[in-house]
Design goal:
Arc Repressor Mutant, subunit A; mainly alpha; 130 residues; 56% helix
């Protein structure tokens, strides 16, 4: 538990610790952009070849997929495995850190579904702080 929920409930709400801001910034730096979350979601199902990722992620270009995979690899979310055979086989899979992002994605999906429902119906639901 990050302690963020406790902070939100406390009287110190005006004093958000710098570490929370830094952690949020780090998270956003890793997942920002149109394609990173779809790539991570595709890899949550298991390792994939580049061609498979291209087929599974609608409308992404090969150039963009390559760029995003490199950034995810630099950030320690994706690892690239090269098999020395003819033709060379390259597979991508999530690192342990990449697999741990599942909770973030689940929370984003839950929030997005609730937000969409509220937007369509025009009703705001009161959600208790946890």
């Amino acid at each position: 538990m990050s302690g963020f929920k406790e902070l939100m409930e406390s009287e110190k709400i005006q004093q958000c610790p710098r570490r929370y801001v830094l952690a949020l910034t780090d998270t956003l730096n890793v997942v920002h952009g149109k394609w990173k979350l779809p790539i991570i979601a595709a890899l949550l199902r298991g390792q994939n070849r580049f061609k498979d990722l291209l087929e599974n992620i609608e409308k992404i270009t090969p150039r963009m997929l390559s760029k995003e995979l490199k950034e995810l690899e630099i950030n320690g979310i994706v690892e690239r495995q090269v098999y020395n055979r003819v033709p060379v086989l390259i597979e991508y899979r999530l690192t342990a850190s990449g697999k741990n992002i599942t909770g973030v994605i689940d929370s984003m999906i839950d929030w997005g579904m609730q937000h969409r429902t509220e937007t369509i119906t025009g009703k705001q639901q009161e959600i208790p702080m946890m």
